[in-house]
Amino acid sequence: MKKFVIVTDSCSDLSYELRKQYNIEYLQMHIIYDGKDIPASLDWEHISVKDFYDLMRGGTRVTTSQVNGEEYIDFFENRVKEGYDILSISCSSALSSSYKGSLVAREEILKKYPDAKIICVDALNACSGLGLIAITAAKLRDEGKTIEEVAEYIEANKLKVHQLCTADDLVYLKRAGRVSATSAFFGGILKIKPIIISDANGQNVAVEKVKGRKPSLKRLIEKFKEEYRENPYQAIIICHADCPEDAEYLKSKVEEAIPNKSVEIITSIIGPTIGATVGPGTVAIYCYGEEVTYKA
Fold this sequence. Notes:
4-stranded parallel sheet, 13 strands, alpha/beta
C-alpha cells in the first residue's frame, strides 16, 4: 500500500503537539492587521495568543486571506515527488475557498504528474471540527486503511461532527460580516450570547440566543449531553479564544457527562484565522453525534 500524507489548513486549529502525534500537515492562511500580513500559524511564532486577542480587544480589526494557490501546488508537487499520495481535507466550502484552491492545485499537478493520487475533501466543518475530522483520518491511516477507504469514511461521517459554540461579544462577528450592526449593538446591551452550530451545508448558524455568559456555557453542556453519541473514533475537543478558565469549566462538565471515561478530551486554542472572525472569549465543544441534517 502506498504511503499518503494528510494535509489540512489553518482553520483546523490543530496544535503542534496534535499535528505531531497524528502526523498531520497543514497549509497556512494569512492574517492582516495594521498593515501587516503574517502567516496564520497555529504555533503562534509570529504573534502570541495573548497579544493577538488583546489586539482585537483593543479595537484592531483583523482580516484573513486564503492559502495561496502556489502554496497548494508547491506542497502537492513536493509530496508527489517524495512518493506520497495526498489526502487534502479543507475547511468548509461555505466559509472558505480553501477547498476550491485544493481542487485547482490538484488539476495542475495531475497535468504534470498524471499518475499522482490526490483526493480533496470538503470537510463541511471548520475550527476544531475540521481538526477532529483530520485526526479521525489519521487514526484510520494508522489502522492500515487505504487513502480511498479513509476518504470514503470521512465523506460518509463528516456531518456527524457537532459544533457547540458561543461567542462572548457580537462585535467581532459584526466586523467579520457575520451579524448585522443592529444585532451586535442590541446583543451587547442585553448581554446576548448566541449558540452557534455548523449546519448540513457547512455554514455556521446561530440557533439560540442566551442571556449572560454563565447561562450560555451551561447551555453548551446541555446541548452536548443531547447530541453526544458513542463512536469508534470519538474524541472531544474543547477550544477557546484566550479564555482558558471557561474552557476548563466546560471540560470538567464534559468529563462528568460522558459515560465512557476513556474518551480523549482535548483542550486547544482557537487559531488566528477562526479567531479573527469570532473574537476573544469564544468557546466551543466538538464531538461526534448523529448526522447533522439541519439546514439554515
